[in-house]
Amino acid sequence: MSTSNPEPHRTKDLPDSDVPGPGGSDSVLGLHRSHMEVMNDPVMLSARGEPGTPDADEPDTTSGGQDTVQAMHDIFMREQAEPRDGFEPVPMWVIAVFGGLLMWGGYYIGANSADFRRDVYDTGEFRYAGLRVDPGATAPDPEPKTVAELMVIGADRYQRVCLACHKTDGEGDASKDYPPLNRSEWVSGTEASPARLARILLYGLHQSVTVRGRVYGREAMPAQGGAMKDYEIAAVLTHVRNSWGNKADPDDANPGVSTAVVKSAREKVGKREPMVEAELKKIPLDYSDLPPPPKK
Ligand code: HEC
């Protein structure tokens, strides 16, 4: 055991011919030492056996190398944060803020959902041919008079009653034998008249009907006379006659199918079986159930 070597890290036997200058390893060691001195760590200084360092607590300088590693280890351990067990409890203010946000969100959805009705937001569904109808417009219910007023109520009734079979785009459903209303000759084309349409709605239609060159007949059109009032039938008919590609009432003030037309058709015919196509065709296109205007 030698106590004469004050610098245990130093390897004097190594040839340093490939290192330029007065020993590369020396300068590295010198840097290290000066760093330690700057840090002024008594353990480190004493471990190297520095002269002038108190080594009363370190009498054995022979085990300097071992101690150095230990001292380094101690230094690093000292720098680590104390590890904690488990999670920190969530602060009360975070719980309060999130609770408040949840309550506000619930209130907001409740207050602005409009009963989750699709027609409130989905206003692009009905693009009326030519006629502009404000999606938020209201109409005198139950006494709509103009085409625009009838269409506001008619759009609503269409959604509730007819949409299931005749669909949003008015094209019906060929696979289920529901005929189209869009560009149908019976709605606004060559077979369409207020008297015929009022009867289809009031009493229903069965057996078969030809629409746009295709024969439909597997299903029946259910009568609406019991479920819908005269003004509602007038409204939904005005709606389908002026939606999608249909344009039947160019005069906004005079609907082809008015409440009066439906009312007289109902009074003239009373209760009856669903209509059939042949019967409808027998009604002249210019026929009206309305009493003729009084002569002057
Ligand atoms: C249960 C399904 C169903 C519902 C609901 C329904 N229809 Fe129909 N509709 C039919 C069927 C089926 C026919 C064809 C009947 C036949 O073959 O004789 C038809 C035929 C028609 C026709 C004549 C043919 C044509 O395509 O132009 C009109 C007009 C019509 N419906 C309008 C309406 C309106 C307006 C409503 C809503 C008030 C409505 N329908 C609700 C099934 C339905």
Shape descriptor reads rod-shaped
The fourth-level CATH homologous superfamily of the domain at 125-282 is Cytochrome c-like domain
- CATH-defined topology of the domain at 125-282: Cytochrome Bc1 Complex, Chain D, domain 2
Low-pLDDT parts are 1-8, 10-23, 52-56, 58-63, 123-129
Distance between the termini: 144 Å
Helix/strand structural class? mainly alpha
- The number of helical elements comes to 10
Q: β content, as a range?
A: under 5%
The CATH class label of the domain at 125-282 is Mainly Alpha
Instruction: Name the average pLDDT.
Output: 81
Radius of gyration, whole Å? 48 Å
Strand order in the largest sheet: 1-4
What series of H and E elements makes up the topology? HHHHHHHEEEHHEH
Oligomer: single chain
Ligand inventory: heme C
Quickly give the CATH architecture of the domain at 125-282.
Orthogonal Bundle
